[in-house]
Amino acid sequence: MPSWALALLVPVCAVAPWLLSSQAPVADPSADPSAVIKQAVAAQGPQKRRADLPPSAAAVQALSRELADPAGQGYDKPVSTKQAAAVRTTPGKYQKVGRIQIPRIGLDVPYGEGVHESVLERGPGHWPGTALPGDEGTAVLSGHRNTHTAPFKYLNVLRPGDKILVTVGKHKPTTFRVLDTTIVPEAKYPAFVLKPAKDPESRNLTVFACHPEGHPIFRIVVRASTTGPDKSTGTTGRR
Q1: Taking CA atoms, which of 27, 125, 140, 188 is between 20 and 30 Å from 167?
Q2: With b meaning 16 or more CB within 10 Å and e meaning fewer, what string describes 65-93?
Q3: Is 145 exposed, middle or buried (CB count within 10 Å of its CB: 0-12, 13-18, 19+)?
Q4: H or E element at residue 210
Q5: Where are the domains of the chain?
Q6: In whole numbers, what is the pLDDT of the chain averaged over residues?
């Protein structure tokens, strides 16, 4: 082997083991939620680091878990505006889920999946992560009162016992009976509408919209259940 080739081979052999053994540092998610994002972005390679590309689904899911876990333990893990901006999502194509009918106010419209404005401008939207109407748990539907078809304009006239019929796909509608109507401050409405039912096996529905009309400082929240009061009999029972 020529002497010049041997001279090049020696430094390469010395560096190669270091290259093979090096790994990307493992982020400690408990220390800083942004570390999860940084690790996921680094794993994607240089070609994926452009600012105009959203993070991978794994990065979004990891950050969601990191934020949810501490919350369940009774304390907060603050996330800066910069960190929150790192997780960007874009709503997908509109997906129709089913129809909602409220005879008292003459409502009979389709509803879609999601509560992004691109969904709500077409009608009511199903809050992701909540139960589907008719399943065990509480399904949550949001809609406007005076814009974008104004499907929930007259929620304020509903009374206990009124019927709300909701379908999922081509299945038969589930009939809910209104339990109550509550006006909730804007800052408190997410916790109120997402609060689990006392009976985990019950089937419930929550529909809400801005209140008063055109001024989103409150939310009008109507809660209903398949075991709600029947106005015609004065009794309760699954319908």
Answers
A1: 188
A2: ebbeeeeeeeeeeebeeebeebbeeeeee
A3: buried
A4: strand 203-211
A5: 3-86, 96-225
A6: 75
